[in-house]
Design a protein that fits this description.
Layout lengths: L10 H7 L4 E5 L2 E4 L4 E4 L2 H4 L8 H13 L12 H13 L6 E5 L2 H18 L7 E5 L8 H6 L16 E4 L4 H11 L4 E6 L15 H11 L3 E5 L14 H4 L6 E4 L11 E5 L1 H8 L15 H16 L2 H16 L8 E5 L6 E5 L5 H10 L2 E2 L2 E2 L3 E4 L7 H15 L1
Parallel strand pairs: 3-13, 5-6, 5-7, 7-8, 8-9
Antiparallel strand pairs: 1-2, 2-3, 4-10, 9-10, 11-12, 12-15, 14-15
Helix pairs in contact: 3-11, 4-11, 7-8, 12-14, 13-14
């Protein structure tokens, strides 16, 4: 009997079959408790961009914890390392002069964006703009705001209405957003939440022209464009720090986590364009919102070390290489009768869509027998989001594991 309740799990099955215990990691590999090695096809949970076991990050965190583990970020209080991280993030943000609000993770950042969107419109004299819009197949974390905005119905079932004034539109149809705005009235729509590449919903790259069209619609109707870059940020999409730069989105808010620290310590951020932050920086206005561990000093040290590695090793450039390698090496799998589609072509992200969705969970375990650790996502797809330090030879190893597992 286990005392640990796993997230997103059939705990009866875990009790019956036992857990997959990951004991250590190094580079692009993990090892189980028995010493067997696996290629980490998911980079943990989309986050281990710089790979596992980087002593540079561990040392930076240890040094900070010995100096000051954490204090507070409320009121006028800050810590030097947290202030430096905010400066560093503002310097690479897709919108110049952005402000950085720290959280403890991606779900925190989504809920912060939801609250700030509504509060912003109130501060500028338009309190009727309260409707928040998401997309089908989208995942925005599991707090109240993210659960309400999700485009994955199973993640919303059984909770009732958690947040009012939320809507969802088709993930691949820009005109569906335009139709919703026309129906509700632009005076009611506060923000549009958009993953540049849909992640947990199955890894769906944006259709050609889609992102620029929805961005234009948001500008036209004065709707805040919120880029959820929890997965796509910090080099994973290739070519730049954020997908927003690759697609020229200039978001009003950008949600970040995961690759910010490469998972070494929990941390999230909400990067806010200057025009949205302005009412709260003018004086006399409080945003009564924050988290005890937002901008945690130890986590900030991990993030600075991670960003240094990302820049020094040009991991956004490495993601572009992986984009091409994944497309080439995974393409033959599309011919297998058990595979419906291979989705790739945008950064270090891909998915193997199975013809029979019921095959996904069993194949996860079969893949472990062939030295690959992955997970089921969306509706019967297998996730591929390797660490950005992965070599082309390791992608060959990954593809060989999938070929063997498919049989």
């Amino acid at each position: 009997m286990t005392a640990l309740w796993h997230g997103f799990a059939d705990m009866g099955a875990v009790e019956h079959d036992g857990a997959f215990v990951v004991a250590r990691g190094e580079g692009a590999y993990i090892w189980d408790a028995a010493g067997a090695r696996y290629f980490d096809a998911t980079a943990g949970l989309w986050f281990a961009n710089i790979g596992h076991g980087r002593a540079e990050v561990a040392d930076a965190v240890a040094d900070q914890l010995r100096t000051l583990a954490h204090y507070s970020g409320f009121g006028d209080v800050t810590e030097p390392v947290t202030a430096e991280l905010a400066r560093r993030l503002a310097a690479v943000a897709p919108v110049p002069d952005s402000k950085v609000f720290f959280t403890a993770g991606g779900s925190d950042s989504v809920d912060s964006a939801a609250k700030l969107a509504r509060r912003y419109w109130r501060e500028v004299g338009r309190p009727d703009k309260t409707v928040l819009v998401g997309r089908t197949r989208a995942y925005h974390g599991m707090h109240v705001g993210g659960t309400s905005l999700t485009g994955l119905p199973a993640n919303r079932e059984g909770y009732g209405e958690l947040m009012t004034d939320t809507r969802s539109v088709a993930w691949d149809d820009a005109e569906a957003l335009g139709a919703l705005v026309a129906d509700l009235g632009a005076q009611r729509v506060a923000a549009f939440f958009c993953e540049p590449v849909l992640g947990a919903g199955g890894v769906y790259p944006p259709p050609p022209g889609y992102l620029s069209r929805v961005r234009d619609l948001c500008r036209e109707h004065e709707i805040l464009f919120v880029a959820d870059e929890v997965i796509t940020g910090f080099g994973r999409i290739g070519g730049d720090w954020f997908a927003s730069a690759r697609y020229d989105l200039a978001p009003d808010m950008l949600i970040a986590a995961k690759g910010l620290t490469s998972g070494y310590v929990p941390l999230g951020a909400l990067i806010v364009a200057p025009h949205v932050a302005a009412p709260f920086f003018a004086g006399g206005v409080w945003w009564r919102h924050g988290y005890t561990y937002g901008g945690h000093a130890g986590a900030a040290a991990a993030a600075l070390a991670t960003m240094a590695i990302t820049e020094r090793e040009d991991l956004p450039g490495a993601a572009l290489r992986l984009e091409a390698t994944l497309r080439t090496r995974l393409a033959p799998l599309a011919e297998h009768p058990r595979v419906a589609e291979v989705r790739s072509g945008v950064g270090a992200l891909a998915a193997i869509q199975l013809a029979d969705p019921a095959d996904a969970l069993p194949l996860v375990k079969v893949l472990r027998a062939h030295g690959v650790s992955t997970r089921a996502i969306g509706s019967g797809a297998l996730q591929i989001s390797p660490p950005l330090i992965t070599t082309d030879d390791q992608i060959d190893e990954l593809a060989a594991g999938f070929t063997a597992a498919l049989g």
